[in-house]
C-alpha cells in the first residue's frame, strides 16, 4: 500500500499535489475542530461550521462564524493557529524547509513542488526555503515580543499567548484574533488608536504580503552585501514592481479611506494622528489580512466598494496573501495603457512584458471576477436579507482570503457557507492552479501542433 502511494505521488503533477495538500489540511483540521475538547461549552461543533473555520484558517482568510476566543478552547485555538501557519507558508514549503534545516537530501520531486509553491528559482530553491522558514519565525518572534509590551501588562501571562497568536496571524495575513476577552467580535477596534499594536501588526502584514521571492532578493541584494561590507546591487525587476505596487496601494488606500470615512467611522477618534493610524491600518489590512480597527458594517457603501477593489487585488505573488496579486493588476493596467497608446507590446519601466504573462493575467482576473460574481449571486439568492454590496464584499473577501466582513458571516445560510468555503479554497490555491490541477493530463499536450489563424473583431 505504501509503495503504491509513493508511486502515485511521483506521478501526480506538482501543482495538483499542492492543491490536494491544502484540501487534506482543511479536512483534517475540520475533523479536529469538531472534537468537544475544542469548544468551551464542551459540545461538538457541527462539521460544516468546523469545515468553515478550518478552511478560513488554512486559506489564511479570517472569516469566522464565532468569536475565536469565546467559542474555542486553548486546544481549539492551537489547532487554528497551526492551520494558519501551515496555510500561510504552504504545506510543501513547510515540510521541505524542515527537511532542509535538518540537512536531509532534497529530491527532484520535492524540488519541483517547492518551486511551484514559492514561485522561486529552481537554481537555489533550497536556500530560498531555508530563508523563508528562518525569516518567517524571526519576524513572528519579533512581532510577538513587540506585542507583549502591550499585552503582558494588560493580560498577565495570557498576554504571551495573545501576542504569539496575533503575530503569526498577522504575518500569515490571516486576520484571526483572540481579543474576545476585551471585546467580543471586536477584533482590533479596542486598539484603533494604539500605534504600537497597529503598526506592529501592520508591519507583519506588509512583510508577509510582499512575497518570499521579494524578501529573498532584498536580503541577497541589499542586506547581505551590507553585512559583508561589499557593494550592494539592484533588486530584480519583479521585486521592484512588487514593492512599488505595495507602497502605491498602501498610500492610496490610506488617503482614500481617510477622506471617505473622516466623518463616519473615524469621527469618534480623538485626534488626527489616531485617524491617520486607523486609515493606514485599514489600507494595509484590506488587501489581504482582514484585521479591522473600525466597524466595517458602519462604513459608507462607497468605502466598502473601494475596499472590495483592494481585496480583489490582494498581495504579491508567492506571499501569504491572496487576491489576483498586485503584479497581475499592474500587468493589466500597463496592457490597457499600451493599447490606448497604439502599442503592440506591454511595457513598464522600460521593460517589455511577455505576452504569456499578459494572457495569464487576463485569465486570472476574468476567472476571479466570474467566481466573485457567481458567489455574490448565490449569497443574495440564498440570503435575501443581505444587500448586494455586503454580499459582494463577503464574496470578494473570501476570494482574496482577506477576512473582512460587514457583519454578515455568522448569519449566512448553509448554502452560502459552502460557497464561501469553496471560494476561500480557490482564492488560496489560485484559480489557474486549480484549473490546471483538474485538467492536467500526461500525454495530452501537443505544443508542436499548428492551428489556422482565426480573426475576430473586438471592441
Automatic annotation (TrEMBL):
Q: Would you say which domain of life the source belongs to?
A: Bacteria
Q: Where are the transmembrane segments?
A: 15-35, 47-66, 78-102, 132-152, 158-176, 196-221, 241-260, 305-338, 358-379, 418-440
Looking up PROSITE patterns in the UniProt record yields: PROKAR_LIPOPROTEIN
Please name the Pfam families in this protein's record: TrkH
Enumerate the UniProt keywords alphabetically.
Answer: Cell membrane, Ion transport, Membrane, Transmembrane, Transmembrane helix, Transport
Membrane topology according to the record: Multi-pass membrane protein
MF (Gene Ontology): monoatomic cation transmembrane transporter activity
Q: Where in the cell is it found?
A: Cell membrane
The terms describing its cellular component in GO are: plasma membrane
Q: Which GO terms describe its biological process?
A: metal ion transport
Q: What is its main location?
A: membrane
Q: Can you say what this protein is called?
A: Cation transport protein
Q: Which organism's genome codes for this protein?
A: Caproicibacterium amylolyticum
| Record lineage | Bacteria, Bacillati, Bacillota, Clostridia, Eubacteriales
Amino acid at each position: 500500500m505504501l509503495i503504491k502511494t509513493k508511486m502515485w505521488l511521483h506521478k501526480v503533477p506538482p501543482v495538483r499535489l499542492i492543491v490536494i495538500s491544502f484540501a487534506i489540511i482543511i479536512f483534517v483540521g475540520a475533523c479536529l475542530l469538531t472534537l468537544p475538547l475544542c469548544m468551551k461549552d464542551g459540545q461538538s461543533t457541527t462539521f460544516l461550521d468546523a469545515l468553515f473555520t478550518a478552511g478560513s484558517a488554512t486559506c489564511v482568510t479570517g472569516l469566522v462564524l464565532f468569536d475565536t476566543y469565546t467559542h474555542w478552547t486553548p486546544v481549539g485555538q492551537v489547532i487554528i493557529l497551526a492551520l494558519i501557519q501551515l496555510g500561510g507558508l504552504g504545506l510543501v514549503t513547510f515540510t521541505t524547509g524542515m527537511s532542509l534545516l535538518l540537512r536531509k537530501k532534497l529530491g527532484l520531486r520535492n524540488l519541483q513542488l517547492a518551486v511551484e509553491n514559492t514561485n522561486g528559482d529552481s537554481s537555489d530553491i533550497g536556500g530560498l526555503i531555508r530563508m523563508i522558514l528562518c525569516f518567517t519565525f524571526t519576524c513572528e518572534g519579533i512581532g510577538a515580543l513587540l506585542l507583549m509590551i502591550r499585552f503582558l501588562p494588560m493580560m498577565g501571562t495570557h498576554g504571551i499567548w495573545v501576542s504569539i497568536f496575533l503575530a503569526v496571524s498577522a504575518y500569515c495575513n490571516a486576520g484571526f484574533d483572540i481579543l474576545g476577552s476585551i471585546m467580543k467580535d471586536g477584533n482590533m477596534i479596542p486598539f484603533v488608536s494604539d500605534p504600537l499594536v497597529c503598526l506592529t501588526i501592520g508591519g507583519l502584514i506588509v512583510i508577509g504580503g510582499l512575497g518570499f521571492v521579494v524578501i529573498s532578493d532584498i536580503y541577497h541584494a541589499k542586506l547581505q552585501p551590507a553585512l559583508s561590507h561589499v557593494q550592494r546591487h539592484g533588486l530584480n525587476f519583479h521585486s521592484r514592481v512588487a514593492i512599488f505596487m505595495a507602497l502605491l496601494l498602501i498610500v492610496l488606500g490610506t488617503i482614500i479611506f481617510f477622506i471617505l470615512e473622516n466623518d463616519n467611522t473615524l469621527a469618534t477618534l480623538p485626534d488626527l494622528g489616531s485617524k491617520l493610524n486607523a486609515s493606514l491600518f485599514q489600507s494595509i489590512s484590506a488587501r489581504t489580512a482582514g484585521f479591522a480597527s473600525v466597524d466595517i458594517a458602519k462604513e459608507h457603501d462607497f468605502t466598502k466598494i473601494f475596499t472590495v477593489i483592494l481585496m480583489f487585488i490582494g498581495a504579491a505573488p508567492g506571499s501569504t496573501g491572496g487576491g489576483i496579486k498586485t503584479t497581475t493588476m499592474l500587468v493589466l493596467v500597463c496592457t490597457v495603457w499600451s493599447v490606448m497608446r497604439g502599442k503592440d507590446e506591454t511595457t513598464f519601466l522600460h521593460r517589455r512584458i511577455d505576452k504569456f504573462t499578459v494572457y495569464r493575467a487576463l485569465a486570472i482576473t476574468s476567472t476571479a471576477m466570474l467566481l466573485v460574481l457567481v458567489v455574490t449571486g448565490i449569497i443574495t439568492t440564498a440570503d435575501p436579507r443581505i444587500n448586494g454590496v455586503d454580499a459582494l464584499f463577503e464574496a470578494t473577501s473570501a476570494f482574496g482570503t482577506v477576512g473582512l466582513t460587514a457583519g454578515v458571516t455568522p448569519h449566512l445560510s448553509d448554502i452560502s457557507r459552502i460557497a464561501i468555503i469553496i471560494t476561500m479554497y480557490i482564492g488560496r490555491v489560485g484559480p489557474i492552479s486549480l484549473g490546471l490541477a483538474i485538467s492536467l493530463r500526461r500525454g495530452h499536450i501537443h505544443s508542436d501542433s499548428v492551428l489556422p489563424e482565426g480573426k475576430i473583431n473586438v471592441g
